[in-house]
Structure formats: C-alpha cells, structure tokens
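User: I've been going back and forth on whether these two constructs are worth ordering. Before I decide, could you fold them both?

Assistant: Sure. I'll take them in the order you sent them. The first construct and its structure tokens:
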Amino acid sequence: MIDRRSFLGALVAGLIALPRAGRAQQPRRIWRIGYLVPTREAPTAPVIRALGEVGYVDGQNVTLVVRTAADDFARLPTLAAELAQAKVDIILAVAPPAIRAAGQATKTIPIVMAYWGGPDLIESGTIVSFARPGTNVTGVYMLASELEGKRLELLIEAVPSARRMAMLNPGSAQGERLDELRSVAAAGHIDLSVSAIPASKDYLPVFEEMARDRIEAVLVPSFPRFYVERREIIEAAARYHLPAIYEWGDMARVGGLLAYGPDSLELNRLVARYVDRILKGASPRDLPVAQPTKFELVVNLRTARALNLVIPQSVLLRADEVIP
C-alpha cells in the first residue's frame, strides 16, 4: 500500500512534469523570410550564414521564400505581392526597385532593405528620416552609388597612363551618378564614356566594343546584377586586357584588378541583426537606418601582372588586402 506522503509526492511530480511534456510536444516556430531581388539569381548563401550567426538556422527555425525578377523590374510588384499574400513574417528587399515594390505591396509586413543607392529614401517616401524611419521599412543604406566617384579616382590613380575610360552600363540604374563621375573624370583629364547595355551574362560583345573604341580602363559600378554576374564580367575584362575596378572585395578576389566598397560581411551581419530585432518584437518604424562603417580596398597583383600593369605604391599602401 502507498502511504499518504508517497502519494502526494508522486502527484506533485506528475503535475510538474505535465507542462514540460506539453511544451516539448509543441512544434518549433519557423519564421518565413521573404527575399526579393531584382536580379536573375539571389545570393542566399551570405544571408543564410549571417542569419546563422544570430541564431536562425535555415530549415530549422527559419526558411527563405525567394523571389527573383531576372532583371525584369516590371515583375517586381507582382513578386512582392506574392510574398505579401504568402504571409511571410518579414521581407528582405535588395536594391531600390525591389524595396519600392515591397513597400507598395504591404504597409504592415516589416521590410528590411539592403539599399544600394538610387532615388533618395526620404524624397521617395520610403522612410521619414534615417534616425526614425516612421514606416514599415528600415535596414541598411550601403552608400554604394556615393562611392562611385572614389572608385573612379582609384582607377585613375592605379592606371595613370589611361586617358579613355568607360563605365559599364547598368541601364536605368545609372541615375544621377553619371554627372558626378564626369566631374571626377574631368578633374583627372579623363574622357569618360558609357558602354552599351550588356545582354544577360554576355559581356564579351560589350568589352570587345570598348576595346575597339580604345577604352583603357573600366569602372564597373554598383549594381546587384553586376555582382551576380561578376565572373562573366571579369572574364570579359581579361579577354580584352582591360583593367577594371569593382564594388565588392570578392570581385577582386576572384580575378578583378581592384575593388573598393563596404565590407560585405559587415553588411550581411547588419541586415541579419535587423531581421533578428524585428522578429523579436522591435518595430521598423523605430529602428534607425544603418550605414556601413568598414570599407575595404582589395588589389589583385596577379591580375595586374597579366595586364602588364604596375600598380603604384600610393595605391598599394592604402590597400586593406593585396593578392600576390
């Protein structure tokens, strides 16, 4: 026979165990992150790595719902509406056209932007202010187009013999940056032109035409498509022996001559932290728009040797990374 004390002890232990068992049986919440990009491919791997650093593991407690516009910006409103209808928990939108489409598709789902530059964020109504966005949009402003002049200055310094340079044409995304670039070119006594718009992934005809026009160096501007198709661009530049400067350090590491821009690892981590804060309850209205604080200059001497080019010491001494 069980005595009264033993019975009460067993009853209490059972009551304590019941909630724990109930909690163990509850399914883990899987957050759904919409990922909207204007390009043909979405660079998901860096985003997944950055999210993993703040505790979100793809396939376990988070999943990416990806929509790509394949460089057809007219498709972005439809794709953004699909993400809103899919009731994702948050939308990560890359570059101005995707951010605008997401903002038009929903005023309630939080939007974290990775903003490359373009129409002014405040004038376009995307946010009220950098310090207090006041809308469902916040995130990271990457200063990409603002750095184009600095890239051109570096290219002029790295290839001092060049007098004819070209910017690879990003189409309608070139915006107002061309006026500033032409001012920088004029100050450096450079004749700056704009290339034809490349067909998707087929850059050889464009670089062939630039070589035929006696272009001596190329600025590859900030544009998501150009990062996605970086290998094709770098191969075309090598084929026609044209030195070029790029935005992201990775573009020099895989064969580009020079790269100058924000540290991509830092930027992905910033985006991931914004996603984390919002999923934990913060309102995008109150989260100030972040800007990069770390920039890197990467020089590839292997590529310089292939081009029979000697990079001046003034550039090498400022480099954060030199690839021998």
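The second construct, handled the same way:
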Amino acid sequence: MLELEAMGSEQTRKIHRKHGAPDNLFGVKVGDMKKIVKRIKKNHELSLALFDTGNSDAMYLAGLIGDEKKITESQLQHWAENSSWHMISEYTVPFVAAESPFAWPLSLAWIQSPHEKIASTGWCTLSRYVAMVPDEALNMSALKSLVTQIEKSIHNSDNRVRYTMNGFLIALGGYVLPLTDFVKKAAVSIGELKVNMDGTACQVPNVITYIEKMEKAGVLGKKRKTARC
C-alpha cells in the first residue's frame, strides 16, 4: 500500500474522480502498477487482501495479480458485490472471473441482477470470456439468445448495463466468427445507443464500425490469450 501511495499523483486522481472514482484512491497509472505485477506475478491471498482495503488502486491491482485457479466462486461473488466503482466492477472482477472455472455460470447469474453494478460485471465477464475461449467450446445457441435478449432490452436497461451490453456485442461479433453477421444484424435493429458518460470525452463505440475495424486490422476472430490488460 505504501508503494502504491508513492506512485499516485493528483492529476491521475482528478481523472479517475471525473470518471466516477470514490475518494479512497491514490491515483496510480495502470502502466506504473504493472511494474508491481511484473515482480509479484500472481498472489491469491495478497489479491484478496488488496481488494478488501476498499482503495481503488489496490482493488485494481488485485485483479491484475489474482489467481483464477485459486479464487473461489464465493470470493468472486464478494468482489462483484463490493466493487467500489465501474473501473473495478467492469475490469478488476472480470479480469479474474473470466479466466476462472466459474466464468460462464457466474456471468449468466450476474447479468440477471437488478443491481446495475453486478449486471455490468456479468456482461464484461462474458465479453472477456468469449474473447478467449475457442469457438468450438462456446455454447452458440445460448450466446445467440443473449444477443436477442440485448436487442429487446438494451434501451430500457440501466446506464452502465447499456454500455457493457454494447461492449459484449462488440466482443462477440469481433471474436466469435460464426456469430459476427448475427451480431451485426442485431446492431442494426438496436440502432443508436445513448449512454450518459458523465460529462467525460468518452464515447460509446459503434458495434458495426468496431467490428469492421477489427476486420481491416486482420484480427477478426483472433482469440486473446488472457482476459487481463
């Protein structure tokens, strides 16, 4: 914690707060945090302790060093329920959850939650899951049903849920070739998506544009080796 605190800066704290971070943070750049990751690698017990500090930087680091082979379903549920803001719920928890044996059942349960934070965690976990898992190991019919669910409900969903549903469509269309055209058709049906970005310069990526960008770059359907970044 002392090392993290020393890495923090007021400028980064201001940026994070503008995006919705709580006051309990040091303001550490992710690039600087990865210097610690390189030294520590994965450490299950330390990741749990860091998460439970409630400090935003420590919680994010927890996701970078979390051990997907040791973490339990109840511990992931604890993380999902206690994320302090969307950088933790949409990155930290999915980083580890998507690589764990519980990725598919947990994410399906989370997306049904009435709580915006938990539902968003579920969609982000699914996004990272389909980006890694070989197509032949995916449940294509279930994924198509999720696309249909999004098509019917996205405009009436909570703000961050709309954003993360959109992200899931991009991941599914970009990393799962058998469903690329299916996702594109759904995106046309959905039309313009409005998400409140809290006055920041962030924009909602267009599903079709993003998928076509991946195609032009020659990475369409190319699976990721890890859920973490």
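Notes on the second construct follow. The radius of gyration is 17 Å. The CA atoms of residues 13 and 140 lie 42 Å apart.
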